[in-house]
Each structure stands twice: as C-alpha cells, then as structure tokens.
C-alpha cells in the first residue's frame, strides 16, 4: 500500500555513482518535506516493467540516467519540447494519471551559464566539442537562447553532420582538423566529450586561440577544473565548470515531484564538491 511519503528515484545501470540522491536529499531536508529520493539500479531488460509499475509502487516520478534515457523516451505517454528535440528523457513525472518525460539537461546547461557568465548567449559564435547525447542537450539550449552560429566539432564527422541535420539552421558540422580556425572568432567554447575527465587525458581545443572575451565551459565536473578549463584560466578567459549544470538540471524534477521549486545555492554546491573530493 502506498504510504504518505512522497517518493521519487533515480534509475540507471549502474547508478551507485549518482550524486542526485545527495542533491534531492538536501532539498527535502531544507524544505522539511516528508519525501524520499532513492537510487534504484535497473537492468535494461527490466526497465519497461519498472516504468509500468511506478504509479502502483507509489512513485511521483524520478530521474533516468545512462543507459535508459532513450528507452524512457519511447515509453512515456507525453514528452516536453526539450525531450522531443534532444531525443532523450531524463525526468519522469505524472500529470492527470499520464506519464510525462522531460529533458532538463539543456535547462541545466543554460542556467549554469546564467549564474556564472550572465549575457553568455550574446557573446558570439559557439564551438561545441562532441556530438553525443550531452552535445544534443547543449545544442538545444544554445538554439533556445538564440545563439545563431553553432559549430559542432567531432572526431567522427558523420555524427556531427547527423546533429547538424537534426538541429538545422545556424548549426554547422566539422572534423577535428577545423578546430583551430573555428576558435578565432568564437565567443563560447563548450566541451561535451569525456576528454579531460579523471584518467582521460588530452585537450582537443586550445583556448589560447580564442578571443579575449570568450567564455569556456565544460560539462565534465570530475575533476572540477578540467585541463581545458585550466588552460582557459591560464589564458585569463572566463571559465564555468560543469557542476552547476548537474545541480540546475535537478530543479524541475524536484518541483514536479515535491511541489516546491528549489534553489541552487552555494551551500548545496559545497556539499556536492565535498563529495567529489575523495574521487579527485
Ligand atoms: P555522451 O552521451 O556523454 O555525450 P557519447 O554519446 O558516447 O556520450 O559521446 C561521446 C563524445 O565524446 C563523442 O562526441 C565522441 O566522439 P566520437 O563521436 O568520434 O566517438 C567524443 N569522444 C570520446 N572520446 C574521445 C576521444 N578520445 N577523442 C575525441 N573525441 C572523443
């Protein structure tokens, strides 16, 4: 029988690395809500059954992470515009008995830059490194905010072309060899690849080639200062780390499940940073 506690979850496979329980746990305590947010490991073959029994199990919704984002996209009754355009769902909730799927990664990306580099969307052409799932969310955010010249650079050119075709006007596709030339007049450089993640070496773009007013951001947040951000800082460019995107993408889900729009505060950031430290 469903109890009075408001229940939400994050599911992935694996899911134990997820920081989402810490984020939502902090907000639940902060707002004195009788709620829970659990990490649930679900193998791909069990994911559809898991989704079908959510309501019966008393869940108001939850987050979906790798490898279930595309499966969730296919299973929901309705999708928000961001999920539709990105092709993946990371947030589930119920409305009038129907299951909705949304994608809050683009919101998280834009809100992080709004916090730390206000005015970013008017800063000029954007160069986006990578053409995977994370890149789709970033490109959606850039288009939503009116960035008119979005340049996707990817090791596998065909994947960049696929995204260019998906997002249309204002988006161009390039191989790695074009990177240096594309940086010369760019106002924003975004890394969406795992390059520079802990244990994953390499820099695929040199911030030294960017103009002085350029902003550099990385969606990777382990380590908080990636080699790309370190090089940009050495070049005295404005840098924004990826942790704020993680924190901000959690906001709309919490509001759906628990009825309060939570804040991304310095206190929350410090809690998650402290949790990252042993892994650096
Ligand atoms: P995500 O959903 O996190 O974006 P993904 O879909 O696996 O993950 O995409 C990973 C991105 O990082 C891709 O753009 C990938 O380039 P390819 O499309 O050529 O595979 C990029 N990437 C990963 N490792 C890389 C490397 N060593 N050098 C250059 N690009 C790399």
Protein architecture, described:
It contains twelve helices and twelve strands. With 280 residues, it is of the alpha/beta class. The protein folds into two domains: 128 residues, Leucine Dehydrogenase, chain A, domain 1 (Rossmann fold, 3-Layer(aba) Sandwich), CATH 3.40.50; 139 residues, Rossmann fold (3-Layer(aba) Sandwich). It has a six-stranded mixed beta sheet. The protein has a six-stranded parallel beta sheet with strand order 9-8-7-10-11-12, sandwiched between helices. Strand 11, helix 9 and strand 12 form a beta-alpha-beta unit. The longest helix is centred in the middle third of the chain and has 12 residues. 44% of the residues are buried. 2'-monophosphoadenosine-5'-diphosphate (ATR) binds next to helix 6. 2'-monophosphoadenosine-5'-diphosphate binds next to helix 6.
């Amino acid at each position: 029988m469903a109890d009075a506690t408001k229940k939400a979850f994050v599911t992935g496979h694996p899911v134990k690395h997820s920081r989402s329980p810490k984020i939502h746990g902090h907000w639940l305590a902060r707002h004195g809500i009788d709620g829970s947010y659990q990490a649930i490991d679900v193998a791909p073959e069990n994911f559809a059954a898991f989704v079908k029994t959510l309501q019966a199990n008393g869940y108001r919704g939850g987050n979906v992470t790798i490898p279930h984002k595309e499966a969730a996209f296919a299973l929901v009754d309705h999708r928000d515009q961001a999920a539709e355009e990105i092709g993946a769902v990371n947030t589930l909730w119920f409305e009038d008995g129907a299951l909705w799927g949304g994608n809050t990664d683009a919101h998280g990306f834009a809100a992080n830059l709004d916090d730390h580099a206000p005015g970013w969307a008017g800063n000029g052409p954007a160069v986006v490194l990578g053409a995977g799932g994370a890149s789709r969310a970033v490109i959606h955010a850039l288009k939503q905010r009116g960035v008119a010249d979005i340049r996707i650079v990817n090791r596998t050119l065909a994947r960049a072309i696929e995204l260019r075709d998906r997002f249309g006007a204002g988006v161009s596709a390039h191989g790695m060899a074009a990177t240096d030339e594309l940086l010369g007049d760019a106002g924003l450089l975004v890394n969406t690849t795992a390059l520079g993640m802990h244990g994953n070496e390499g820099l695929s773009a040199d911030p030294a080639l960017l103009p002085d007013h350029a902003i550099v951001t990385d969606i990777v947040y382990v380590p908080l200062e990636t080699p790309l951000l370190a090089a940009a800082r050495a070049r005295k460019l404005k840098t924004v780390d990826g942790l704020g995107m993680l924190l901000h993408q959690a906001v709309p889900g919490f509001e759906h499940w628990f009825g309060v729009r939570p804040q991304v505060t310095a206190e929350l950031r410090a809690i998650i940073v402290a949790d990252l430290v042993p892994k650096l």
